[in-house]
Amino acid sequence: MLFSIIIPAFNRLQFLSRTLASVWQQTYADYELIVVDDGSSDGTAEYLESVRNRVKIFCQSNKGPGAARNLGASQARGDYVAFLDSDDLWFSWTLACFAELIRRYEQPAILAAKLVEFSTESELVAVRETELKADAFPDYFASHRLGYFVGAGMSVFRRDEFLKTRGYTDQRINAEDHDLILRMGDARDFVQITSPVTLGWRRHAGSATRNLRRTLNGILYLAEQERRAAYPGGPSRARARREIITRHTRSLALECLRQGLGGEAWRLYRTTFVWNAALGRARYLAGFPLLMAMAKFRASQTPALRPSGARRLE
User: Fold this and answer.
1) Is residue 90 domain-shared with residue 164, that is, in the same domain?
2) What's the start-to-end Cα distance of the chain, in Å?
3) Count of C-beta atoms within a 10 Å radius of residue 43
4) Fewest 10 Å CB contacts: which of 28, 76, 229, 238?
5) What angle do CA 146, 147, 151 make, to 5 degrees?
6) Res. 1 pLDDT band, cuts 50 70 90
């Protein structure tokens, strides 16, 4: 068996049936489908019972998506584990694309989907199967200049390589997928699909990525792991690792400023200052304190104190 498809599910009944349907429509059929119910209370367990003949079901008390994925992987039999989130969608050609690239690149350790974001499924009607194209690298670290990221729901890993890492962290943080890909950063061969689109990533109010505090904790966790030399590659790959990590910290620091979290934004800036300096990020390093000052000024200008006719700095 080539693929074990693993879907963690926690209170996503409203989306789960569509996610499973997108798997069942695959033109490539050499797979098993595993769903891990992470302590749902919305009827997910009852729904899964109704499709038990098509799905392998495992249950646990609520421990988070990382732990759920790890449980699924521990029960997998496929040569590759393909992770899909319970609110996202595959296209009918998705698994066939992964299978062809595994053949073409002689069993790479990591493959990543090309995604499109959507809010309603009508937005996906125009997505078409196009010629299969991909960028290939000796490992994930070698792609650092291109800004590729491998989110959990877009990732396919050779199972033996995944198991070497002991899987996702069980900490309750966002960015657990970025931590995993950094721990797998020097595994042989990384393939990024560039055509066709192979994953529909659903935007909705309940998405875990909307929890800014958990995202902040996760990105700070990446920085701490790098300082502790927890990621592979040693000094020779430090620049690649830090370019990847600071790409996350810079964007998150700016988002924290937009959300009025100045202290958190400054912590991200301060924590990675030396790395950004070594990477030549002079514009960011010089400009961020100015943005910080402007944010503080805006916060101080309450309607009661702002002079009549004063112009807000947006």
Assistant:
1) yes
2) 55
3) 12
4) 229
5) 135
6) very high
Residue 303 — very low, low, confident or very high, per pLDDT cuts 50/70/90? low
Q: What pLDDT does residue 307 have?
A: 41
Domains held by the chain: number: 2
The dihedral region occupied by 224, where left means phi > 0, alpha psi between -120 and 50, and beta the remainder, is alpha
Please indicate, yes or no, whether residues 140 and 282 belong to a single structural domain of this protein.
no
Helix axes 238-258, 282-300, angle to 10 degrees: 20
Of 190, 206, 222, the last residue of a domain is 206
Residue 155 counted as domain residue: yes
Mean pLDDT of 290-308: 70
Task: Please tell me the predicted confidence (pLDDT) of residue 205.
Answer: 77
181-218: per-residue pLDDT in tens?
999 999 999 999 999 999 999 998 777 667 899 999 99
Q: Do 223 and 177 fall within a single domain?
A: no
Look at residue 125 and tell me whether its pLDDT is greater than 70.
yes
pLDDT at 210: 75
Alpha carbon of residue 272 to chain centroid: 21
Produce one character per residue of 4-14: b if its CB has 16 or more CB atoms within 10 Å, e if not: bbbbbbbbbbe
- The residue range of the domain holding 242 is 211-300
